[in-house]
Every structure is written in C-alpha cells, then in structure tokens.
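Before any further analysis, we paired sequence with structure tokens, yielding the entry below:
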Amino acid sequence: MRDMASFASPLRLAACGMAAYNRAMLFAIPFPVIDPVLIEIGPFAIRWYALAYVFSILLGWRYTRALAAQKLSPLTPAMLDDFVSWAILGIVLGGRIGYVVFYNGSYYLSHPGEVVFLWHGGMSFHGGLIGVIVAMVVFARRRKLRFFHLSDAIAAATPIGLFFGRLANVINGELFGRETDVPWGMVFPVGGPNPRHPSQLYEAGLEGILLFAILALVAWRFQGLRRPGLISGLFLAGYALCRLSVELVRQPDQQVGFLIGGATMGQLLSLPMLAFGVAFIWRSRRQDA
C-alpha cells in the first residue's frame, strides 16, 4: 500500500498541474499570429517593425506641424520639416547604440560586425531618446533656437511612436511580460507554454495613449508649449513612471536579467528620466515663451 501511495502521489500532482495549466490556457487571450514580415520579394523584406517607425515619424511630423500651424509652438512648420531627417538619424543611431551598450554589450564585443544588422532587431528607447536629444541640441544651435522650444514639440508627438512601436513588439512576440494567471494573460510563441502578461499592450496604453492624451491636453487646452520645458518634463516624468510600473510585470531581457536590488535595466534607465522630468517641470514655472 505504501508503494501504491508513493506512486499515486506524483500522479495527483501531475494531474493538478495539468488542470491548472488547462485553466490558465482557458482564460488566456490568443496570441495574434501575424507574420512579422509584411512583404517579402527575394532578399528584400518589409517588416511591420520598420513600418511602425515610418508611421510614427510621419504622424509625429504632421502632429508637430499642426501645433506650429495653430501658433501653439514658437516653431514654424518649415523648421519642423527640416528637423525630420535629424530626428530619423538620432532615433536609429541612438536606438541601436543604446541597445548594444545597455542590453547586449558582451555579445557585440565578440561580434562587432553585427552591430549594423538592424534587421535582426534590437533597439533601445532610452538610446533613441539620447540620440534625438543630441540631434535637437545640434539643430537648435545651428538654427539659433531655444532648445526647449524644439524639445517640447517633439516630446508632445513622441507617444505616437511609442504606441506603434509596442504594437510591433506584440507582432514580433518579443518583450513580453512575466508568467501570470490573470484572465488576459497571453501565450507567446517563444515565451514558453504558460500565459504571460502582455506587457507590450500595457506600455502601448500607458506610454502611448494615456501619455499622448495628457500632453495633448496640456498643449492644446492649457497652452503648455508657452512654458518652455513643461511638455518635455511631463513627457520624461510620465514615461518614467509608466515604464517603472510596467517593468514590475515585464520579463527582463534574458542576457541582462535582474540587477541591483532586483531592479531591471529599464527601471534603472528610467530613474534619471524621472529626475530630469521633475526638474524641467519645476524650471518651467518661471519660464515664458
């Protein structure tokens, strides 16, 4: 009898585990199976991720022009037209260099030739932000503009890019959350058999839709662009708070893992953003356009 009991116990545990798995699968929302490649002709391929960047830049450009056309920004539409190419360069170079340095430095030290393989993926928002800031500093100096006049307009439009970028992350099945039993968990193709938090959708909603709405309200209703640094500060602080929150359920990058005190790289990089954001908001209280 003792042998039978010892044999039955693992079976019961396995049955309980299978039942729990089936319940999790029952409540998991289906993964949207979309080919990451939209069109492929021979060696040439158009990916949804690339289109996300294209749509983001085009819509962001049109939005900043609308702000300028309504005299909500001291910038002119022509100035913003000229800045588009600078923004693209800052996003691509900064985003790629940021990913290489912050998230996968050891690998690229061993494979330096792959740094330019953008089609293999690997872009960092924080790196892209630094790249755009550098582009804005240089552009503003060349055009004799106040830096915050330019950065406020760009910050107001940046959540558009964050929204499309996170949707592209979903399509690629990447940057997903940790395992969960919430009803809206999602089973990702490369995330194992258990449902996970769709953290990309959380970020699309918070960093994209919510942050855009807040900045638009301040810019259009309260004419926040007339207080240099206010929109930039609200964006930095708002993004940092959203990212710090979502990182609590987002799966850390495998090659990085958890860092100091169980924090993730995304959280550590967001802390300076929060500090600068609060400082810019405070500074804007005494500034006039």
Notes: Strands lie at 37-41, 44-47. The chain has one domain: 46-284. The CA atoms of residues 63 and 157 lie 6 Å apart. The first helix runs from residue 2 to 27.
